[in-house]
Amino acid sequence: MAFARCIAKFTKNYFLPDSSRSISITATRNIKEIREVKENNTTIIEGIVKPHPKEHLMLKSCDNGACPLCSAGVNVKHTDVLILKQFVRSDGCMLPRRITGLCNIQQKRVGIMVTMAHRAGLMGTLKPKNCRMDPKKRRDWRKYNTYYDETTIKQSYY
Amino acid sequence: MSIVRRSQQWGTFARMWHVFDATWQDPYQSSQIIAKYLLGRHKPISHPMNRCGDHVVVINSSEIALRGDEWQMRVYFHHDTYHGGASWTKAWELHKKDPTMIMKKAVYRALGNNLTRHQAYARLHVFLDDKIPLEIQQNLSSQIKQLRPVPQRLDQISPEELENFPQIVKLPETYVLT
Questions:
Q1: Fewest CB atoms within 10 A around its CB: which of A15, A19, B34, B72?
Q2: What is the CATH code for A62-157?
Q3: Is B92 within 8 Å of A124 when comparing Cβ atoms?
Q4: Is A94 left (phi over 0), alpha (psi -120 to 50) or beta?
Q5: Which regions form coiled coils (chain A) (predicted)?
Q6: A54–chain B Cβ distance below 8 A for any pair
Q7: Which ipTM was obtained for this model?
Q8: Do B67 and A59 touch (CB under 8 A)?
């Protein structure tokens, strides 16, 4: 009985294309939303680029060509995890410069400060899954609190 | 004399008890501040011939933070006067053995090398956590400000604050974060 149900499910998923598929062969990216609008006898199917969910929280961009961090005018420290979080992937890796749009110096600075925050154990949620989330569970000196000095970063404007 | 000036005068001439929370504080930087209070240098009547130092209670000394790689690089030297009796203990090993020791040694050094050091050092009370004996707790009347703000971990921040924080980076439209 279970086997028959399995076959039925397989047929439904793969041979009847009009049913909604839960499996896709390529990676789903969800950049565009497919919208179906019916007007009288015409059906319009269009792909619309969805707006960013945090569009309303975006800072105003400058016209003078400065990078987003320079134009924001904030002195970022390695403890500002809410800012640094925006420059990393979900596993804590730094995004490349062509994606972040930062200037050369700020990209280097942010990259170093992300490393500092990871070492200080401040970004435990942004780690690969097999890592220890809690810095207190590390070994030897790594479990003790460590802070870093931003003046030791070579890259700076002044 | 107004009641504010009067209490100021009491505070100056009496031995006050200050509390210092060492959570995420550098012991070597904060010991400079603590030494000032222990020697009475913060008072207008301060003078080398005048004994006006206060008591300082340091709590959470097990939660101190050292800079960069100092846990491995800073070394405490001891010699037991015998041949080959020199020993070098790394800061993290000393902290593992006694979580109050680094704080005590830092303040002892910051007090300077003269005869007032021992009396001032006797007024320092270091505790590894926030559990203080009641007779000391009843004396406390002032708090010393921390040098560095205690950093907030990402998993300690509330989801509302995470959601509503301003966005600096605008990623390209076709780029999807993994």
A1: A15
A2: 4.10.640.10
A3: no
A4: beta
A5: none
A6: yes
A7: 0.84
A8: no
